[in-house]
Amino acid sequence: MRNIQTQEQLDEVRSRLDAIGRQPDEERRREAIHDPPSIVRTGRPPTQRLTGPTEGRPRGGGANIQPPPASQSAARNRCGLCHQHGHNRRSCPQNKEGY
């Protein structure tokens, strides 16, 4: 900028700088923007696979992390001897051996 002495030289420098500033915009307009290539992964999609009991929240089905409430678990107990609900073989009133 120190070598510029006349208005003509200043106008010439400005026009060159403007041309340089517009050049990337024109190049961007000419280039077409494409979608990224799609990747086909092998195996079951992670959202559809069954999760194990030690993994976090169930995604596609599988383990439930929270145990059932105590009132429901007592109703599910069924004795192997008398097949009644609420106790097991060890605490069955009909068990004479004490298993």
UniProtKB/TrEMBL annotation:
Superkingdom of origin organism: Eukaryota
UniProt-listed InterPro entries: Znf_CCHC_sf
Keywords in alphabetical order: mRNA processing
Membrane-spanning ranges: none
This protein's record includes keyword Ribonucleoprotein: no
Alphabetized GO MF terms: nucleic acid binding; zinc ion binding
Biased composition (Basic and acidic residues): 11-34
UniProt entry tagged with the keyword Ligase: no
Region: Disordered, residue numbers: 1-99
GO annotation (BP), single: mRNA processing
Protein name (record): CCHC-type domain-containing protein
Organism: Favolaschia claudopus
Taxonomic placement: Eukaryota, Fungi, Dikarya, Basidiomycota, Agaricomycotina
